[in-house]
Design goal:
Layout (H helix, E strand, L loop, with lengths): L1 H15 L6 H4 L12 H10 L5 H37 L1
């Protein structure tokens, strides 16, 4: 039992410890343009561009980023409209 607990703790420490050797692969492609993209968005972009040429990848990624920004802007506008309506109804 004691060995199992120690092994679990060591595995957890190894899993959650920073790995400087892999830092070069973490966000190299997204260092400037897609820095605000979430991990899920990055993975979905990677899957969408799997097997494509570089030109196709750039085009697909840029279209997807623009679509996400438009969707976020529309959601923000809708939230602000609801907030304005709520404020008006309270007066």
């Amino acid at each position: 039992m004691k060995k199992t607990v120690i092994m679990v703790i060591l595995m957890a420490l190894a899993y959650y410890s920073p790995q400087p050797g892999l830092a070069q692969y973490s966000t190299g492609a997204y260092s400037e343009v897609g820095a605000s993209d979430t991990s899920v968005e990055r993975v979905s972009d990677w899957l969408a561009t799997l097997g494509k040429t570089e030109e196709e990848k750039i085009l697909i990624k840029s279209r997807r980023r623009v679509a996400r920004k438009i969707k976020k802007a529309q959601a923000s506008i809708a939230r602000k409209k609801k907030e304005i309506e709520r404020i008006k109804s309270q007066q």
